[in-house]
Structure formats: structure tokens, C-alpha cells
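call fold(seq) -> C-alpha cells
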Amino acid sequence: MDGDMKDSGDKMRMKRIWAGVAALGLTAAASAAVAAPARPTPYWASISQDEARMRVGPSLDYPSNWVYRRRDLPVKVVQVLGQWRKVEDPDGVQGWMHVRLLSDTATAIVRAGEAPMRESASDGARTLFRAERGVVGRLSDCGGGWCAIDVHGQRGYVKASDLWGATDK
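ret:
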């Protein structure tokens, strides 16, 4: 009988050891995922929510210094700290946003007083629309000094120099 109890105790100890080894393996895998190299900064992102708070530090414990109510507004990510991104907005204001508030969608904001949206990437192309300063659109392609932009279904080409955002993608 004592031999059976000893075997039972040994089996329990082995189960605990294997559970500990498995837990260590999971911890190591999670640490490797968190420690995976982030994209080099700076890089472009855009606000993915209808409302996003910029904070003075990388935590919910820090107060908000700005509240953005503009989905797709481009921001430049200048620093990464865990799940937090230090971003710069089109006016040069910097602060921290949680990664869930950001998207990789390439967007830009018109910085010129007025930017013609042309039928093709050429100064001589027909003007389809005129985008005023502050208009935000999604970019699909940039090259040769022009960007294809979509502003709520209105599509055209705008000079990259008239935009601030992911014009280098």
C-alpha cells in the first residue's frame, strides 16, 4: 500500500513539473511576441475610430490633452511603447494613443488652400473636384509627385505636395 501512495505522489509531482514547463513555454512565447521588433519609426497611421483621445503619457492613467473626432485623420507614429504609440498630428501636436485607436489605412489631409482633384496624374488633366484645406481622404497609390485619393467616393489625383500624410507609401 505504501508503494502505491509513493507512486501516486511521484505521478502528481511529475504532472506539476510538466505543467510548470508548459507554463514557462507559454510565457516565453508570449514574451517573444511582445518583444517582436516593431516597425521602424516614424511611420504613417490613421485614426480608426470616430473619437480618439490623445494622452500626455502612454497609459489610461494620464489625462487626455486632445480628443479627435475625425476618423481617417493621418498621424505620424514617432515612438512605440508596448500598446501605446506616440503620434504627431497634422498641426505638429504630439501625444500618446492606444494602438486600438489607430489603423494602417493610408490617408492624407489637404494642406494647400485648395487642391484640384484631377482625372489623371497630370497638371493638364481635367479637374473633377476641388478639395479644400482640411479635407481628409484615403490614398491608394502615390508616385511621380501625385496621389490617387478617395474622399467619400469622389476619386481623383492630387499633387503630393498639397497633402500631409502617407504620400510616401
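Confidence is low (pLDDT under 50) at residues 19-36.
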